Structure of Sulfate transporter:
Amino acid sequence: MTDDKPTTGKNPLVSGTPRKSRIPRLPHARQDFAASLVVFLVALPLCVGVAVASGVPAELGLVTGIVGGLVTGLMRGSSLQVSGPAAGLTVLVLEAVKAYGLPVLGVIVLTAGAIQIAMGLLRLGRYFRAISVSVVEGMLAGIGLVLVAGQLYPALAAKAPDSGPGKIAGLPGAFRAAFGDGTALASLAVAAGTVTVLLLWKHAPAKVRTVPAPLAAVGLAMLAAFALDLPVATVEVRGLLDAVQPPPLSAFGELASVAVLGTVVAFTLIASAESLFSAAAVDRLHSGPRTAYDKELVAQGTGNAICGLLGALPMTAVIVRSAANVQAGARTKASRVLHGVWLLLFAALLPGVLAYIPIPALAAVLIHSGAKLVPVRALAGLWREHRGEALVLGVTAVSIVAVSMFEGVLIGLALAVVKTAWEASHVKLEVVDKGAGPVDAHLSGNATFLRLPRILDSLESLPRDRPVRLDLTGLHHLDHACRTALENWAERHSAAGTEPVRVTAAQAL
C-alpha cells in the first residue's frame, strides 16, 4: 500500500517548497565604486595643494587623505561626508610649522584629536551647532582672504611675507616685479590658465565634465608646462615613507608652552566647527541617514590623533569632496573608504607623478578654493537684513587677516556674545507724571548692564522734588550691576529731601 501523504521535508529539490531569495550583500556597490573614483580625482590635487601651501611635504597631504578615508571613513557619524586636509586650516598650519617646526605640528594635531574624542564622548558635539554662523562664515572668509593673498606669491614665483597684512600690502610690488621677470611671467601664466579652466569647466560638454575640474586644471597645467618646457617650480618629492615622521617624545614637552596650547585650542575648535557645519550642509544634500554629531566628532578626533602620530596634516570634513561624493551617487560609507584606498595606491605606486605638478597650478587651485570661502553675495544680503550679523562676519574676517587665526576667532565670538546680549536686553521705561503727587516709573523687559546708561539717564531726569514709585514687576531679568545702580540712584533721590523712593519688585527678582 502506497503512502499518499505529501512530502514535508525541506529539501529544496522537492517541487513545491519555497526557495529563499538571495539578498545582495552590497546592493549599492556599483554606485559607491563610481563615486569613490570621482572623490579620489577631486581629492588628489587638493591634498597635494594644501600640503604644499602649508609648508610641509606633499606626501603628508596624501597621508591625511588616506587616514580620512580608511580610518574616519569606516567610523560612524556622517555616512557620506569625506574627510581630509582642508584649505580652511592651511593658514593656521603654516603659522604653526613656521613657529614650532614639523615635529611639534604632529603633537598639536595629536592633542587636538584627543580633545575632539573626549568632547564627542562627553556628548558636546551637538553644542557646536550653537556657535554663531556669522562667526564661522567670518572665520572662513578671513581664511579665504589670507589664503588667496598668500597663494598669489607662489603663482608669481615670489616669496610670501609672514603676516596677513604683509601678504596683502606686498601684492602690488610682487605684481610689478613679475612683469620684468620671465620666470615669474611663466608661473603667472600657468596659474591664470589653471584658474580659467576651473571657472569655465562647468560649461564644458557633459562627457568631458566627468573629469573633476581640479584634476583637469592641474593635468592641463602639467601638460602645458612639460610641452612648452616652461621654467616653473614643481612639487618636491620625498617618498611616502620618508615624509612620514612621527613626533619624537621630546616634542611633547612643547605642550607646556601657552602659545602651543593656544594653537591646540584653535585647531580643535576650528576643525570641529568646520567638520560639523559641513556635516549639516551635507545632510541637506541627501535624504539618507542624518549625522550623529557626537559620533562624528569622535571619528574626526580619531583621524586627527592618527594623523598626529604620523606627523601629517590635520583633517576636517571637506565640503567640496563631500558634495562631490553625494552628487556622484554615493549611497554608503564605502565610497569614502574606497577613495582612501585609491589615494594609498597612488602614493605607493605613482609618487613620481607628483614631481611633474607645477606649483603655480596648485596655488591657482587654492586661490579658487579660497575665493569661494569669501561670501560676497551672502554678505550683501546679510547687510540688508541683519546688519549685526554682517558686522560680526566682517569683524571676524578682518581680525583674522590683521592679527591671527586664533585671536580673530576669539574676537568674533566675543562680538557675537555682546551682540546677542545687547539684542536680548530690551528694556522699556514708562513714566507716568500727573503733575502733582508721586511720579510712577515702570521698568519692563531685561535690565542688564548694557542698557544701564539709558536707564539711569531716564531716572535721573525725573523731578528731584517729588516722590517716585519705581515698579520693577515687569522685569524678566535684573542683573547685579543694574540692581546695584538702581539702589544707589534710589538713595541719591531720597537724600534730596523728598519721600524715600518706593520700589515694587517681582518676587523672583
The CA atoms of residues 103 and 247 lie 5 Å apart. The chain has two domains: 29-373, 427-504. Residues 29-373 form one domain.
